[in-house]
């Protein structure tokens, strides 16, 4: 199959979705490809129920609600190819062709990589892996599933603390297990969880899980005490972080800095016609916030529009000057 478009966006997370909206402002036909089967990227996969606080004008918004509004803002003209991964990049003059892993060929004038951290997978918790989908999970998709349950959260980063705090008011009990005595999470989150009276085991690890048809309890080895305690647990969240890979993008000739793509002030990479924005983009002084990604998306799309058409102004004016963008 072949598809022609003006702009191909790789990544359907917040940055990619906002870029699709801004491309509509600039009158660009847009295709969005994402390896995940649903829109929203990391937000949808990792924390749809968590509150996000760094989006301008929204004091707090749940991840799933932000994604829904971004999709609505992008409009109906965007073509989405979900559950597909971009594999190969070929060039014929000014036209780029990206092949996906299901052999779709997308001919485009420009590519914007907005893939966050690239493809990612959670770090496994071997002791509880056999109960995956039967009480053990790496992401929380619905807080209601944890109501009145005994919940064990494993991890010491921001995600672990955020889940523990979010679940504490509705779960029957919340216990946090962290293998170190220091947390990577914000100190204020740790203090707040302690203030609420949640049980916290540090220098400890989950070594075993038990249950008949589903998870019923876990064993926690407490290194400092030299003993093992058995905790009731109908639910376990392994918030141990995740590993990220750029995958086939590494073969595209892009200048890389670790897992990130180096860009200039116009968000262009060293490969003509290929741009990057959001967490995956790298430049001196980079700050990885969602709000920064939105600005980078607009910058990239404006430069792409001007690249495609020399007569198109780099700055199209403010959206308030033109009124609502037609659906």
UniProtKB/TrEMBL annotation:
Annotated SUPFAM superfamilies: FAD/NAD(P)-binding domain
Binding site for FAD: 15, 34, 42, 47, 86, 120, 279, 320
Keywords: FAD, Flavoprotein, NADP, Oxidoreductase
Its EC number(s): 1.18.1.2
Keyword check for NADP: yes
Catalysed reactions, as listed in the record: [thioredoxin]-dithiol + NADP(+) = [thioredoxin]-disulfide + NADPH + H(+); 2 reduced [2Fe-2S]-[ferredoxin] + NADP(+) + H(+) = 2 oxidized [2Fe-2S]-[ferredoxin] + NADPH
Subunit structure as annotated in this protein's UniProt entry: Homodimer.
Protein family membership: Belongs to the ferredoxin--NADP reductase type 2 family.
Protein name: Ferredoxin--NADP reductase
Organism of derivation: Rhodococcus aetherivorans
Lineage start: Bacteria, Bacillati, Actinomycetota, Actinomycetes, Mycobacteriales
């Amino acid at each position: 199959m072949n598809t022609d478009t003006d702009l191909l966006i790789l990544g359907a997370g917040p940055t990619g979705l906002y870029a699709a909206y801004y491309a509509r402002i600039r009158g660009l036909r847009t295709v969005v490809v994402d390896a995940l089967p649903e829109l929203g990227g990391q937000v949808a996969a990792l924390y749809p129920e968590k509150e996000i606080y760094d989006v301008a004008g929204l004091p707090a918004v749940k991840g799933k609600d932000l994604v829904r509004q971004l999709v609505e803002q992008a409009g109906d003209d965007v073509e989405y190819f979900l559950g597909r991964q971009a594999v190969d990049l070929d060039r014929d003059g000014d036209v780029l062709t990206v092949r996906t892993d299901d052999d779709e060929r997308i001919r485009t004038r420009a590519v914007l990589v907005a893939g966050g951290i690239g493809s990612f997978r959670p770090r496994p918790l071997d002791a509880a892996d056999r109960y995956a989908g039967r009480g053990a999970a790496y992401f929380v998709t619905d807080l209601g599933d944890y109501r009145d349950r005994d919940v064990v959260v494993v991890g010491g980063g921001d995600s672990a603390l955020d889940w523990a705090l979010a679940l504490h008011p509705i779960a029957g009990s919340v216990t946090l297990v962290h293998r170190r005595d220091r947390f990577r999470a914000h100190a204020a989150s740790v203090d707040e969880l302690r203030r609420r009276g949640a049980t916290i085991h540090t220098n400890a690890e989950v070594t075993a899980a038990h249950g008949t048809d589903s998870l019923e309890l876990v064993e926690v080895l407490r290194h400092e005490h030299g003993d093992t305690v058995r905790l009731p647990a109908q639910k376990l969240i392994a918030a141990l972080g995740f590993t990220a890979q750029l995958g086939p993008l590494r073969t595209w000739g892009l200048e890389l800095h670790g897992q990130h793509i180096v860009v200039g002030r116009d968000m262009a990479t060293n490969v003509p016609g290929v741009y990057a924005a959001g967490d995956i983009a790298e430049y001196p002084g980079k700050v990885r916030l969602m709000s920064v990604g939105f600005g980078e998306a607009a910058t990239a799309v404006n430069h792409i529009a001007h690249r495609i058409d020399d007569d198109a102004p780099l700055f199209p004016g403010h959206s308030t000057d033109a009124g609502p963008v037609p659906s």
